[in-house]
Input
Amino acid sequence: MVTRQARMARAWLDRDPALLPEGLLVEATRSHTAGLEEERGLGWQIASTDGSPGAPLGADAYGHTGFTGASLFCRPDGGRAYVLLTNRLHPDA
Output
């Protein structure tokens, strides 16, 4: 079974023009916060941030962690995506 997260990751890795024009895809996945505590693109955490869960994937990786524990990180060098589906709210929510 392919999750929605995996399909979304594949679209980003393939630079699917149905997502955004190429220029915006590039802008979304590069750091706009250099010199700050955390490097972020447009909605993505850049894996080169100290302590990023994506750091082992390489400096070009980007991703996002969700409030409930689910995470998605993309590694363009190698064309891989990593999806972690968890629920840290259960049973306390």
Remarks:
- The chain has a mean pLDDT of 86.
- The first helix runs from residue 4 to 13.
- Residues 15 and 22 are 7 Å apart (CA to CA).
